[in-house]
Structures are given as structure tokens and as C-alpha cells.
Amino acid sequence: MSVIRVAALAVALCAGMTSIAGAQDTSQQGQAGARRNGGFILKDIQLNAAQTAQVKVIREKYVPKMMELRKAAAHTGMAPDEQTHAKMMELQNAQTAEIRAILTPDQQKILDRNIAEMKARMEQRRNGGGR
């Protein structure tokens, strides 16, 4: 049972992370704009034009790899195995590191806060806390 929960968490985390790097329009603000264009970890981060372009390139680099892993796992009809989960986490961490590298120190603080909040919510859900 816990393997299924961990696998579901991994898939959800990977899905969230791959969607985070979508180019964010600097004219949009707040959580709604972040969800539409960059995912939760870029919430409250205003990207300039150069950063937006860089995030788009980073996302285009990782999304196909993540989708390939997800599709392979979906074909089995089961949660991803530990090896697939590890690959997903590796890609997610690499993508996040690349995005972090293009941010200013102030933006990095917001990113770190957003990631901590996301992990806390996932942990709460894993422990039966729901929304």
C-alpha cells in the first residue's frame, strides 16, 4: 500500500514539476497565473523576458523525457517501479536546478519557499490529511 502511495506521490510531483517550467507571462500575477503558466513553484515569481525564454527552453528539454517515463509506467497499468521513480526524481531535480540557476537571489528564496510548501502539502496528503 505504501509503495502505491509513494509512486502516486512521485507521479504527482513529477507532473507538477514538469508543468512548473512553462513560460510565465510577466503581466499575470498571483497564484492563478502561476498555475496556468508555470506551476506552483513559480508562484509569486515575476520572470523577465530573458528568464521566461530560458524557462521555456528548460521545460522543452525535460518535458519529453518526463512524458516518456510516465507513458512507460502507464502502459504497465501499475505505479512506476523504484527505478522509474528514481529517474523521474532525477529529471525533476535537474530541471528545478536549471530553473533555480536563472533566477535572482530574491526569486530563489521564493522558489525555495514554494517548493517547501509543496512538499509539506504532499506529506500532509500522504499522511491522510487530504486538501
Question: What's this, in brief?
Answer:
The chain has helices spanning 2-20, 30-37, 49-76, 82-101, 105-126.
Detail the topology: elements first, then pairings.
Elements: H1 2-20, H2 30-37, H3 49-76, H4 82-101, H5 105-126
Report the biggest beta sheet as strand number plus sense, adding barrel if it closes: none
Helix content class: over 70%
SS field, number of helical segments: 5
β-sheet strand percentage: under 5%
Mean pLDDT: 77
Order of helices and strands: HHHHH
Structural class: mainly alpha
Rg calc: 15 Å
Shape: flat
User: How many angstroms does the end-to-end distance come to?
Assistant: 20 Å
- The low-pLDDT segments are 17-37
Total domain modules: 1
How many β strands by DSSP? 0
Describe this structure in words.
The chain is an all-alpha fold and 131 residues long. It has one domain (2-126). The protein is built from five helices and no strands. It has helices spanning 2-20, 30-37, 49-76, 82-101, 105-126. Mean pLDDT is 77; it is low at 17-37.
Summary tags:
mainly alpha, 5 helices, about 130 residues
